[in-house]
Task: inverse folding
């Protein structure tokens, strides 16, 4: 039987922000969204990156198992968009679970929930879901897609009591509208499985990747978010 190969963009061996504890972060190659604030523009192409087998990645991860055990950490798969490569992740996560290693996926959640996606969900301990924008029209403009699938994805995770971190990138003038944030607050409060709300200040540090590809940076003229912006959003979501 042919080995399942995954297209990988890069690795981070001792990550500390994409899930609890110390984590091995696997960045998958390929993304169907077109987020205007994307700081990993070079991950979009499904033909980029480097191919690895599940065994290749598994062996890399096992070198750091002692760090996971001592810190209550594990493996987080990010991207790009991990759910574009479910077969690879199902095989990898099956091996990780057999080793007692915690698994997490950082995803947009903009997928129809198929049987294969359900299989992967069942092998995943934690989902970090970036709600692009709770306002659907703004979401379409910001990332190229409706938010309906991602909200349904989060609701499904809630229905099976799967732990979730909600992430929100704060883009001044786009995702920080008070009325939208109140809707987001009510949506989050309707869920029972949210373990953390992670507010991420928009930055333009990935601009050079757009320019290296000969593309115009989409949010030219939009200021980066600061600590006051984050505090304001946090206060609204906790009101």
Result:
């Amino acid at each position: 039987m042919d080995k399942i190969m995954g297209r990988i963009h890069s690795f981070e061996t001792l990550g500390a922000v994409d899930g609890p504890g110390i984590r091995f972060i696997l960045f998958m190659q390929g993304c169907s969204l077109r987020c205007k604030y994307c700081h990993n523009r070079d991950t979009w192409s499904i033909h980029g990156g480097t191919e690895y087998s599940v065994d290749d990645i598994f062996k890399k991860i096992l070198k750091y198992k002692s760090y996971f055990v001592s810190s209550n950490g594990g493996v987080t798969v990010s991207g790009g968009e991990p759910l574009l490569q479910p077969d690879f992740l199902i095989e990898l996560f099956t091996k990780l679970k057999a080793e007692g290693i915690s698994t997490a996926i950082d995803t947009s959640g903009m997928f129809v929930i198929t049987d294969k996606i359900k299989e992967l969900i069942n092998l995943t301990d934690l989902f970090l879901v970036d709600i692009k924008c709770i306002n659907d029209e703004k979401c379409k403009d910001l990332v190229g897609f409706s938010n309906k699938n991602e909200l349904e994805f989060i609701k499904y995770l809630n229905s099976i009591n799967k732990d979730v971190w909600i992430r929100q990138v704060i883009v001044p003038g786009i995702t920080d509208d008070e009325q939208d944030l109140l809707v987001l607050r009510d949506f989050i409060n309707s869920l029972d499985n949210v373990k953390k709300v992670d507010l991420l200040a928009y930055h333009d540090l990935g601009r050079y990747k757009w320019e290296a590809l000969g593309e115009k940076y989409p949010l030219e003229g939009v200021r980066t978010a600061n600590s006051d912006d984050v505090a304001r959003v946090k206060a609204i979501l906790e009101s």
Remarks:
- Residues 5-237 form a domain with the TIM Barrel fold (CATH 3.20.20.70).
- The first helix runs from residue 54 to 62.
- The chain has a mean pLDDT of 96.
- DSSP finds nine helices and eight strands in the chain.
